[in-house]
Design brief:
Order of helices and strands: EEEEEEEHEHEEHEEEEEEEEE
Largest sheet: 11 strands, antiparallel
Strand content: over 45%
Number of strands: 19
Strand order of the largest sheet: 2-1-5-6-7-4-3-18-19-15-14
Helix content: 10-25%
Amino acid sequence: METLELFYPQIAAQAGPYKLDQGIEFEIFSAKSSYFDWAKIRFTEGFQPEISLARKDPAAIELGYDGIMEEVFTGFVSHPYNYGGGVDEITLKDEMLLLEDTQINNTFLDTTPQEVISYILAQAGVGKRKLNAQGYPTRKKLPIRQMSGVQAINAVNAAWNLKKRFFFSGGVFYWDEKPEQQKVYTFEYGVNIINLVRFGGVWELKTVSAPFIRHSHKINVIHPKISGEQEVTKVVSSINDDGFIRTKIYF
């Protein structure tokens, strides 16, 4: 476990050729219930340049402290500047956008789930992957016609009667696997917890910027209302109305 004193958070964003560290607001959403992460970058009134971006331009958002930055989002532009979203806003989606934009038309013979998924990822240009290596019986024939990469992976799960989660984290595709967690961070009442409330059967822990926490991570909570190790189901980071970076962690 590790307890951090979190002061003076920093932000750096990139979209296409543009690198930005001021004049912007952002929102980043990541949840176990969604197969993709998304983010928005908004330009404040004092900084609204003419920006030329195209769908699939690479994008990233970093948060950190004392010059040590950590990527909290990597992916691509899904809606360019002032297109299909709010005014002075860019919408981003993680690498799942590549799978959504890839069409699969193939018939797989004597195959396993991992072989089909590997083919789908290759067609989408996804090189980094971690697939559960569990053995499954081969299927003699599996036709996939005019499906996106996401639809095709769902079809693979259905063909083997599986309900396996898949998502990207840090640019790596995971199927029935989780990213390795190097540290379990502690959030403590009176130290780095701003607020802790429960609604709808879910706890919401508000803290300052916590770029190192992702969904499916374990965290340690020390609070009069609840204590112990918890598994994160959702993380939302944004700049609040007062201009401060805040992270909401749900478990």
